[in-house]
Amino acid sequence: MKCDLCNKPAVVHEVTITGGAKKEVHLCLEHAHAAGIAIPGQQPINKVLSKFVIGKKEGAGEGHRRCGGCGCTFGQIKQTNLIGCPECYRAFEEPLSQLIEQSQFGNSEHVGRIPRKMHTPSHNEIRARKLMRELDAAVTAEQYERAAELRDRLNELTTNVEHENDTPEGNEGS
Amino acid sequence: MTDEARMPEPPIDADDRDVVLSSRVRLARNLSGQPFLNRATETQCAHIVRTTQHVLMNSSVSEKIIWIDLDEINAHDRSLLVERHLISRNLAESSLHRGVAISGDERLSVMVNEEDHLRIQVLRSGSNIESAFQQVRATDIQFEQQLDFAFSDRWGYLAVCPTNVGTGIRFSIMVHLPGLRITNELGKVRRAAKELHLAVRGYYGEGSESSGNIFQISNQVTLGSTEEDLRDIFTERIVPALLDYERSSRQVLLKRNPTLLDDRVHRALNILRSARLLKVEEAMKLISRVRLGVCLERLDVPLQQLDDLFIQIQPAHLRQHVNCALDAEEELEIRATLVREVLKGVN
Q1: Global pTM value
Q2: Over the stretch B79-110, which tens digit does the pLDDT of each residue have?
Q3: What residues of A are in the B interface, CB distance below 8 Å?
Q4: Are A111 and B30 in contact (CB < 8 Å)?
Q5: How many angstroms separate the Cα of A108 from the Cα of each of A88, A114, B35?
Q6: C-alpha to C-alpha distance for B304 and B10, rounded to whole angstroms
Q7: Alpha carbon distance B50, A166 (integer Å)
Q8: Which residues partner with A14 through β-bridges?
Q9: What is the ipTM of this complex?
Q10: B209 Cβ contact partners less than 8 Å away, ≥ 6 residues apart
Q11: CA B143, CA B141: separation in Å to the nearest integer?
């Protein structure tokens, strides 16, 4: 079939039915572009990409980016469920958080032992972390009274932690 | 490895030994600044072995510590270590540079270049998680003075597999569950374990099948709780519930049909005492039945003797026993002879 406007072969065939009346348009590539009709498979690249990015934003981006420490990609991690090096945890922090939560049955934060060479959290800091988790759970469960109570306790504790860290006997640098 | 090097035998009435053969606590640790093993080059693997070997051998975690270069010893010796649960099958079969440090009493072993750079594990007979936990903690503290472990505030101790991140701690018990097997309750145990986020594995841990109704039960969650909380859940809730369940099943067997039970356990003992050829699986199954009879006071055999037999009848230990290579038929014969000797004086 030829283009309605020239002798070139038609590649776009548009059929519209308005008020029972059928209207057919057959256009070649050039005339279809000129008419602003999008051709499947030949859409402007930015349109295709923007759709791709929206749908696959994290997966596609992270899947190809490489860790500066070992050179592995998040795609490889996801495929094998094995992480490449300690640096990967920083490089792919957000996508990894989902993988880790899945493996750890929803748990997402370390509250256990810390190497002695590193900063040792005070009792209040550990308590504050725990309250934070309880607060998150209360909000998720829409238990707003409990959430308010936890928030107040957390505020009080946070003030104490800041005070602890300001004192010369604090744990800084230990 | 000599027989003298084996762990001193605990008393028969040690904690919950009617069900729990042994307890284990292990930590996964990795060196900071080094790729994990799936991305490490041969040179980097060798470097990890050298660095950790030096620290392990110069530590005071045990009065005596033995280093075994697993690249250097033969497959038979590696199998011996697997059969004693001192290294994993995974480590024995790996092609990477690797090694293991073992304390003189064989309670502590530190596997280097297993799945993680270090796997620190402490074993105890019977139900002794707390004692194993204390030793593994002390060992960890000592190692970290000289080794920088990969750690992040958010994720804790970093591991190659997300299932080990956080505390990197795994509590496990090796349990004998013939009651639950015979009463067909194991399916329920597996389902309950899944709901409680516990792994149920076989005699040699990950990837192995159960043998002699022996299972390894361990926690799967390593993140989001302190080591102490994980320990408490395991020892105060999981272990007692499992023990109660197995003991109740044994009582059901006893009450339902004591003659059938007696037939089962005496028949097993007599086959063991008269067989001339024994496959390892058959022997494990029969020893399991005899063990059940002993725990229900239907037979009088020292429990420790049976628990030792579970290990002695394994292929590498048999070869060690006769000090020569065995073909398939010889192995069956030597196993049967050994079992007959051990159970000779038993009534």
Answers
A1: 0.77
A2: 999 999 999 999 999 999 999 999 999 999 99
A3: 69-72, 80-86, 89-90, 93, 96, 99-100, 102-118
A4: no
A5: 17, 16, 23
A6: 8
A7: 42
A8: A25
A9: 0.86
A10: B202, B203
A11: 6
